[in-house]
Amino acid sequence: MNPTSDGTDQEHESALLYRGTSLSQLADRALELAGAPGRTLIGIAGEPGSGKSTLAERLLTAIGQRRPHFATVVSMDGFHLAQRVVEERGHGARKGAIDTFDAEGFLAALQRVRRERAGTVWWPEFRRDLEEPVAGALEVAPRHQLVIVEGNFLLAAQPPWHRVKDLLTETWFLDAAPGARRERLARRYIHYGFTPQAAHAKTTGVDESTSALIRSSANRADLTLTEAR
Known about the structure:
- The protein is of the alpha/beta class.
- It has helices at residues 9-14, 23-33, 52-66, 83-88, 103-115, 164-167, 178-191, 196-204, 206-216, and strands at residues 40-46, 71-75, 121-127, 132-140, 146-151, 170-175, 223-226.
């Protein structure tokens, strides 16, 4: 998965300033977990704008410097329902809410990644420039013994999402600074063509409801990373 930058490198670094935990320590922890038999899946969960994809990509780079081609990153966002389907269901204004994703499809893909280690599993990618998922865009190959999975609802307690956590080796929750999180989110929307007014409406509307749901199950995480305030 290729990260899309809509800010400076300094902004990306700020998203990784977690109290008491460095990127190197997180890479150490991931590689230690990957020492167990089987494929290791590490989940990075958090609210919209919490820095999940940024941390996932930086963690992948840190691991790749030690174990090239050993790890890869996939996202829950690839299981967004198509825009047409969301609109036909009357959920266009709520895109990104938990019921606008294919939960069962996501679970099935996680099960395949855990089970099918001899061949490639192709994973869908959400393209923000298209606002659509693209099938078969990301390769989870046999060489990828560590898979970093990032997404909003990895810790959700409601069915069928409650089954996700059991498919992950360990799940980390990003406890983002609220103000910084909202600012990052609004900048992202504006970068992808939203007006400032529309970005504000989405950030303070459906995204706040989604954030409340995500935080309600944050205590299920194995590790909480708190962003420096």
